[in-house]
Amino acid sequence: MLLALTAKFASAQDQSQKRSAEAKKYTIENCINRFDSSKTVKTSVGYQYWFIAQNFLEDGLTVKMSVVGPRQATHAPHKHPGDETFFVLEGTAQFYLDGKTTTGGAYTSFYCPVGSEHGISNAGNTELKYLVIRKYLNK
Description:
Layout: H1 2-23, E1 41-42, E2 46-52, E3 61-68, E4 84-90, E5 93-97, E6 100-104, E7 109-112, E8 118-122, E9 128-135
Antiparallel strand pairs: 1-2, 2-3, 3-9, 4-7, 4-9, 5-6, 5-8
């Protein structure tokens, strides 16, 4: 009985995903996002640009670039459901994870596990540019 219910649930999930995929067509035109400065979102310390916005992929995966001015941070360390990864493109970042800090430069990644208190700030005297890769769980 349990096996039959599991199979029925899996089949319903597959059908739902198939309908979602059919509803949204992915094409070369909508699958490439070239940076456009007119579409940046200003913040109090710089700006952000969404390469993959929250509503683009069905599973909630996003990619955002954050640009932060010297010696500033977008926000204080925090926690949230789901994990998150930062990838530094330019500048020097200070990473915070559960009470400890370290720094890293370009081409450094920083993984923030589910439930950890984490943060990133600009530790340098030039702009910090980094990617934020996160899957929003409320999708």
